[in-house]
Design brief:
The protein has 575 residues and is an alpha/beta fold. The protein has helices at residues 12-22, 94-102, 104-116, 155-161, 230-241, 253-263, 297-305, 315-335, 342-355, 365-375, 407-416, 463-473, 502-512; strands at residues 118-120, 142-149, 173-181, 188-192, 198-199, 204-205, 211-212, 219-220, 247-251, 266-270, 274-275, 287-288, 291-295, 357-359, 383-387, 390-392, 401-403, 445-450, 478-482, 493-496, 519-521, 528-532, 558-559. The chain starts with 11 loop residues before the first helix and ends in a 16-residue tail after the last strand.
Length: 575
C-alpha cells in the first residue's frame, strides 16, 4: 500500500519500452501477521529451548510479512518535492531503479528475485471454491490467507524457534490470518483464527499424491499445514467459513526476522516493563521498558511470538499484539521515511522473495507488485483487524477453543458478503434476478432439514419443523421436513440442482429473508433443499441485518489508525 516512484537513466523511454516488452516491470510485497489461539498442550517455546508443554498441537509463533516492490520509471528530470508524494508506502522503487537503470543486468536481477520465490498449490481440498459475486460495478474482492509456519527445518529456524525436541518435525500453521480486500478497494478486513481452534479437517491430497482423509474428530487447526502443505490450510479455512481464498502467503521464523530487519524499526507500546520469561523457561524473551519502543529483527519476532506476558497469557492476547504490530508497520511504511535508499530497498526485495512461499498465482515479482498496488488503495483508517469469536471447549478440549456460535458465523458472513468490518458499508448492489422466473409458490417443493449442530453443540430441537411452518404460512404448501439428515452446517443455505429451479430456490430465500448469496446450485440434491444452519438456532426471522452490519464485540476489532494503543502487560511478567 503506498505510492511507488522510480527514475530511469537518461535513455529512460527506451529502457522503459524494453522492460515493458520483456514484461520485467516488477516489485511486490506481501503483508501480514496473524493471530493464534489459546491454552492447551501445544508446543509454545516462544524463545530458547524450553517448551511449554507437549501434545499434538505444538505451539509456536510464525509470522509472515513481505515487502519488496517495484515501480514504473520516471524521466531523468528531477520532479519537484511534494508533501503529498510518498517515496515509499507499501511498494518501493528498487526494481524500477535497478531494471530501468541497468537494462539487461536489471532483467537478470529480476529473474533472480523470481527464482527466490517458493511456490505451492493453492488448495489441496477436493471441494471447488465458490466464485466471488461481483458488485454493481463488476468488481470482485480479494482474499489472501497469511500463514506463519513454526518449522524447525533449518539452522536459523531452530535457533529462533528453540524447542530442540521438535527439530525437523512436521510444521504447524501457528499463525493464520485472512486479509479481505473489498471489491471496491475501499477497505481491508482482517480475521485471525486462533491456532488452537478445534474443527473438522477436510480431505486433502498432497502434491506427492498422499491422501489425508477428512477427519472424523475435532482437530486443532494448526495441524492443517502437516496434511500436505499450505493448500490444506486453505481448504480447511474454506470448509469452516465458506470464504473463497484467492491466494496464500507463508513465512517462517527466519523470514520474519529478515523482513523485519529490511523494513526497519516499527514502534510498539506496552503499559508496563515486560520480560517474557518465566522461572521454568516459558516465554519469548522479549524485554521492553514501559512506553513506546521501535523494534526490528529478532526483537520483532519476539514481540510477534509473545504469549507469556501479554494480558492473560493466552494466544488471544498475542493475536492482539500481532494486530498492533501490523497496523504500526503499515503506518511506518506509509510515512515513507524508512526505505528511501536503493540499497535498503534491494535488501527488502531480496528478503521478501526469499522469505515467502506463495501459491502459483503469485509466482512472480510482478504479480506480487500488482497485488501490492491493490492493497495500497485502502486508506489506513479503513483497515480493521479482528479475531474469530471463540469460546473455550470443555473436558479433554478445555484448553482449546471453538468458533462462537452466531458471532463467528456473522463475521464470516460479513466477509463473504463484502460488508466492511468498520461499519461503513457502501451501498449494496441490488440482488440479481434469476434467469428463470419462479413457479407459483404453492407449486414449489421444498425439503427442510435441521443443520444447526456445531462441534460444541447438538442440533437445536425442532428447527426444521419451525422453518417449514414459516414457509407453509408463506404459501409454500409443498414443504416437507427431512428428519434423517441432521449434519451440521455453519450457515443456512438453499441448494437447487438445475438452472430451471434457480428462480424457485430464490423465491424460498426471499420468503425467509435469507441472502441470495446463500442460494447455490449443487449436484448433491435432486430438488430444492433448505438446510437450517448454526446461524439460525433460535426461532423467529432469519438473523441477518439490513444495510450496515456490525462486527461482533467478541471479534475485538482494532482500527488501523489507532496508534495510541499499548499492550497490557501481565503483572507476573513485569520488572
Amino acid at each position: 500500500m503506498g505510492g511507488p516512484v522510480g527514475r530511469s537513466s537518461t535513455s529512460g523511454e527506451k529502457t522503459r519500452s524494453r522492460v515493458r516488452r520483456a514484461d520485467r516491470l516488477g516489485g511486490g510485497e506481501g503483508v501480514g501477521e496473524g493471530g493464534s489461539g489459546t491454552g492447551g498442550d501445544s508446543r509454545d517455546a516462544e524463545g530458547g529451548d524450553a517448551p511449554a508443554g507437549g501434545g499434538s498441537g505444538r505451539r509456536a509463533e510464525g509470522h509472515r510479512r513481505g515487502g519488496p516492490a517495484g515501480a514504473r520509471g520516471r524521466s531523468s528530470r528531477r520532479a519537484p518535492k511534494s508533501g503529498k508524494r510518498r517515496v515509499l508506502r507499501w511498494s518501493a522503487s528498487v526494481l524500477a531503479v535497478l531494471i530501468l537503470g541497468t537494462g539487461g543486468a536489471g532483467y537478470l536481477y529480476y529473474e533472480r528475485l523470481n527464482s527466490n520465490i517458493k511456490k505451492e498449490d493453492l488448495t489441496l481440498g477436493d471441494k471447488q471454491m465458490a466464485d466471488h459475486k461481483a458488485n454493481a460495478a463488476g468488481q470482485t474482492p480479494l482474499n489472501i490467507l497469511l500463514i506463519g509456519s513454526d518449522a524447525r527445518d533449518s539452522a536459523a529456524n531452530q535457533k529462533l524457534g528453540g524447542a530442540k525436541e521438535t527439530f525437523g518435525a512436521t510444521p504447524l500453521a501457528d499463525v493464520q490470518m485472512l486479509l479481505h480486500l473489498s471489491a471496491d478497494r475501499s477497505n481491508l478486513s482482517v480475521i485471525s483464527m486462533p491456532r488452537d481452534t478445534m474443527l473438522k479437517m477436510p480431505k486433502c491430497t498432497a502434491p506427492d499424491g498422499k491422501v489425508y482423509p477428512a477427519s472424523t474428530r475435532d482437530v486443532q487447526t494448526n495441524e492443517s499445514l502437516g496434511r500436505g502443505g499450505p493448500g490444506c490450510t486453505v481448504a480447511t479455512w474454506y470448509e469452516l467459513t465458506g470464504i473463497r481464498i484467492d491466494h496464500f502467503m507463508m513465512i517462517d521464523f527466519a523470514g520474519v526476522v529478515s523482513m523485519a530487519d529490511a523494513i526497519g524499526g516499527v514502534p510498539v507500546c506496552v503499559d508496563a516493563n515486560i520480560h517474557s520469561r518465566s522461572a521454568d523457561g516459558k516465554g519469548s524473551g522479549l524485554k521492553l521498558e514501559k512506553g513506546t519502543t521501535s523494534i526490528q529483527g529478532e526483537q520483532a519476532l519476539q514481540w510477534l511470538r509473545t504469549r507469556y506476558g501479554f494480558e492473560d497469557n493466552t494466544d488471544l492476547g498475542r493475536a492482539k499484539a500481532q494486530h498492533m504490530y501490523m497496523n504500526s508497520m503499515v503506518r511506518q511504511l506509509r510515512k515513507g521515511t524508512k526505505l528511501t535508499d536503493p540499497a535498503k530497498l534491494m535488501n527488502l526485495a531480496e528478503a521478501a522473495t526469499k522469505a515467502l512461499t506463495v501459491d502459483k498465482g503469485l509466482d512472480t515479482v510482478k504479480k506480487l507488485y500488482d497485488l501490492a498496488e491493490e492493497f495500497k488503495k485502502v486508506p489506513t483508517k479503513r483497515i480493521t483487524m479482528s479475531t474469530m469469536p471463540n469460546v473455550y471447549g470443555t473436558g479433554v478440549n478445555s484448553g482449546r477453543v471453538y468458533p462462537k456460535a452466531g458471532d463467528a458465523e456473522q463475521l464470516f458472513r460479513m466477509v463473504r458478503d463484502d460488508v466492511p468490518l468498520d461499519g461503513k458499508a457502501s451501498k449494496r448492489k441490488k440482488p440479481e434476478e434469476p434467469k428463470d422466473p419462479s413457479a407459483p409458490v404453492g407449486e414449489i417443493a421444498v425439503s427442510v432439514r435441521n443443520g444447526t449442530a456445531t462441534d460444541a453443540l447438538g442440533p437445536a430441537s425442532g428447527r426444521a419443523g419451525e422453518v417449514a411452518d414459516q414457509l407453509k404460512n408463506a404459501g409454500f404448501g409443498r414443504t416437507s421436513v427431512d428428519s434423517d439428515n441432521v449434519t451440521g452446517v455453519a450457515r443456512t443455505g438453499i441448494l437447487y440442482p438445475s438452472a430451471d429451479l434457480e428462480g424457485d430456490a430464490q423465491a424460498v430465500a426471499k420468503a425467509l429473508g435469507v441472502p441470495l448469496s446463500q442460494v447455490k446450485r449443487s449436484t448433491d440434491v435432486s430438488g430444492i433443499s433448505l438446510a437450517v444452519g448454526a446461524d439460525w438456532r433460535e426461532d423467529g426471522a432469519y438473523p441477518v441485518s439490513k444495510g450496515t452490519e456490525k462486527t461482533p464485540e467478541s471479534a475485538g476489532a482494532l482500527n488501523g489508525e489507532d496508534d495510541g494503543a499499548c499492550m497490557k502487560v501481565n503483572p507476573n511478567y513485569t520488572w
